[in-house]
Amino acid sequence: MATEKYILMVCTGNTCRSPMAEGLAQHIIAQHLKTTPEKLPSLGYRIASAGTFAYGGAPVSPESVQALKPQGIDIAAHTATPLTDDLIDQADLIYTMTDSHRHLVLSVKPDAAHKTHRLIPDNDVDDPIGMGLSAYLKTAEMIRAGIQQRINEML
């Protein structure tokens, strides 16, 4: 097995954006490696997500599940995980949805600056909560583009 690479996606509540980013990253990385998302751990890849203000165990939003379903990505079983010092320490790469999420990570762990990046360097991925499925579909597309842009860092 290769050296493990732990990629952490971070948003606020870990019920919309970062679960979609986790699912999309697993899917895209698996495609690049010509495997399935289920086999990534055995290849040394761990992709997870957490929220800066997550309520542990909260369910993923139904719209997030719906937004990824047409792509064959099922995140329905996801439950929210609060961001902790340990998760920050364990991660090899941390991708945040907004610049404020990045600043929050760095306020807790300034030494994580080298591995903490906004997913889309020049743009925040805004929270679609409460805005209906079309907003979630746009958000998922934005996240997909950000992951595609950073895929070489992740592999």
Quickly describe the structure.
The protein is α/β, with parallel strands linked by helices. It has helices at 17-32, 62-68, 85-90, 99-108, 133-154, and strands spanning 5-11, 45-51, 93-96, 116-118.
CATH class: Alpha Beta
Q: Helix share of residues?
A: 25-40%
Task: Order the strands across the largest sheet as they lie in space.
Answer: 2-1-3-4
Topology pattern, helix = H, strand = E? EHEHHEHEH
Number of helices: 5
Give me the Rg, rounded.
14 Å
CATH architecture: 3-Layer(aba) Sandwich
Instruction: Tell me the number of strands.
Output: 4
Task: Indicate the mean pLDDT.
Answer: 96
Structural class: alpha/beta
Instruction: Report the sheet-strand fraction.
Output: 5-15%
Question: Any idea how many domains?
Answer: 1
CATH topology: Rossmann fold
CATH superfamily: Response regulator
Low-confidence stretches: none
Shape, per Cα inertia axes: globular
Straight-line N-to-C gap:
14 Å
Q: What would you say this structure looks like, in words?
A:
This protein is α/β, with parallel strands linked by helices and 155 residues long. The chain has one domain (5-154): Rossmann fold, CATH 3.40.50.2300. It is 39% helix and 14% strand. The chain has 5 helices and 4 strands. Strands 2-1-3-4 form a 4-stranded parallel sheet, sandwiched between helices. Helix 1 runs parallel beside helix 2, helix 1 crosses helix 5 and helix 2 (62-68) crosses helix 5. The longest helix has 22 residues, at 133-154.
